[in-house]
Amino acid sequence: MLTSLTVKQFALIEKAQLELAPGMTVFTGETGAGKSMLVDALGAAFGARASAEWVRHGAERAEVVAIWDGDDSRIAGLLTEQDIELEDELILRRVIGQDGRSRAYINGTPVALKVLQKLGQICLDLHGQHEHQILMQPGFQCALLDARINIEDRSAVGEAFRQWRQVRGSLDALKSERGETEQQATWMREELARLQSLDVEPGLSDLLQAEVESGRHHAQIQQSASEALMLLDEAEPSARELIARAGHIIGVASSYHDGLKASGELIEQMDALLGELTPELRTVLEEPFDEQLLRFQEERLIQLHDAMRRHDRDEDGLLLLIDEWAERLSALDTAGWDEASLAKALEAAEGRFSEVAGRLTEARKKCGEELSGALRPFMDRLSLGGMQIRFDVSERQDQTAWGANGWDSVTMQVMSNPGEPWRELSVVASGGELSRLVLALKGCGALSQMPHIAVFDEVDTGIGGETAWCVGELLALMGGERQVLVISHLPQVASCADHQVVISKYEHEGRTLTTLNQVNADQRMQEIARMLGGLDEESCRHAETMLDRGRVVRSQ
Q: Residues with Cβ < 8 Å from 149, sequence gap 6 or more?
């Protein structure tokens, strides 16, 4: 709860300090005394947008210090996140310069303004201006219905959504991976086919190179073989005939000399070798020239060299690459089975989410009708009798709208008067009507998990009599659970408060100043009497009567 609020050089307030207590505190005073300044100061402490108008004329800066005392795990988490040491009290300080720029501090540590704003979302529920109305906060109107729905039904939607999102994520990831891999796979398949067409084997490059050289020099080879064959075997006399003659001549006298004998043996060997040589030359001469084969081998050799250069590998490396790609392509074919399986699981998850989300939609529609009916008597007592309220629950089956809270769009709609069209609450209702609607929600037990402090401004605009008593009663009831700060012109509302602060305005040395005074019982009776119209004896008796009724209200 807020235990202290100190305001310096803020608008018409030179300096004021309030010690605040649990329960309902009402702020009263004449019109124009500066009651709304108090709301602005509270807003400043919790991160509202600063205004140069907040700085008192002639002052260099305005300053607001609010002290918070209480345990809240959300606040502790926020402070830890900001590396701010946890202490028994939380001191919020906001300094606003003449130019409208401001600085924010928590326990003396400078912080960004958004940190104060996050604290404000936890601590402060400000009713009086639309931008601060909790009823206007995203998701709050849906939460009003969800609080009345079985938690198992809501949990089922959350679980179904998480499962659907998980399966969809897995499928998307697989498709993305496959999309990228498919491009690679296409390239691999094409390249693999090119390599396989080369019939790569170890030493293929040298083999092809030799075959190509042979084909390119076919004519020269034929010419060489032909001339050699003619000299050795076909000429008159041929080399074989001359060697045979020499052998015959040597054979006549070889028995008389070892050298001739050895020479004769060598001549026999030469004749035998020539006998083997000539068939070989004839075989060469018989080889046909295949120009088409030569072109094929040349092209194959070029492709092989290109492949070796592209992949920076020799023939053995290419063979390993072929085996590796074949294995990877086989694995990709298997992944297609996984995608089909995930697609089937996604279809089932979509069906499950649609089933439980649809069930939640129906439950919300039913709760909306029930809550609208429950609000009716309280709205009647709060002078909202002409206003009709309904909860519009619309299914959004577009998957982009799916969430852990279902697929519904929930809005409170208002019919201001019979025959008028239904319009959104934020468009039609005034600040006072919104504040009273919050009280009606409180009265029918629809509010829970609210911020720790509720501030009501303009809550009593346009009401009086028993309606004002009803407002005071509901505010006092709310004060039993939260700290409630109320700015009011009505003695009925003020009489129901646990504490009262009177805001007054006076002139000093030509300047207008605003003061805040926490009043005792006697002073409070006089303030109530003033609010009734005077300080005469009758007004004082009436004030005593109203304070007595307020005490009864608080004791209930």
A: 360, 363, 364, 367
Residue 416 forms part of a structural domain? no
**Residue-wise pLDDT tens digits, 273-317:** 988 998 999 999 998 999 999 999 999 999 999 999 999 999 999
- Whole-angstrom distance, CA of residue 544 vs CA of residue 537: 11
Last-in-domain residue among 338, 362, 397: 338
Check whether 218 has a pLDDT greater than 90: yes
Is residue 202 domain-shared with residue 326, that is, in the same domain?
A: yes
CATH of the domain at 531: 3.40.50.300
Look at residue 413 and tell me whether its pLDDT is greater than 80. yes
Do the Cβ atoms of 49 and 41 come closer than 8 Å?
Answer: no
Q: Which domain holds residue 456?
A: 2-129+450-555
How far apart are alpha carbons 428 and 551 in whole angstroms?
Answer: 35
Full-prediction pTM beyond 0.85? no
Tell me how many domains the chain contains: 2
Give pLDDT, residue 133: 62
Q: Residue 335: pLDDT band by 50, 70, 90 thresholds?
A: low
Q: Are residues 119 and 53 in the same domain?
A: yes
Task: Using the 3D structure, point to which of 321, 338, 355 is the last residue of a domain.
Answer: 338
Contacts of 364-367 with C-beta under 8 Å, sequence gap 24+, read 364/142, 364/145, 364/146, 364/149, 364/391, 364/393, 364/406, 364/408, 364/410, 365/391, 365/393, 367/145, 367/148, 367/149, 367/391
Q: 225-244: buried (b, 16+ CB within 10 Å) or exposed (e) per residue?
A: beebbeebbeeeebbbeebb
Residue 441 phi, psi (nearest 5):
-60, -40
Q: Is residue 542 part of a domain?
A: yes
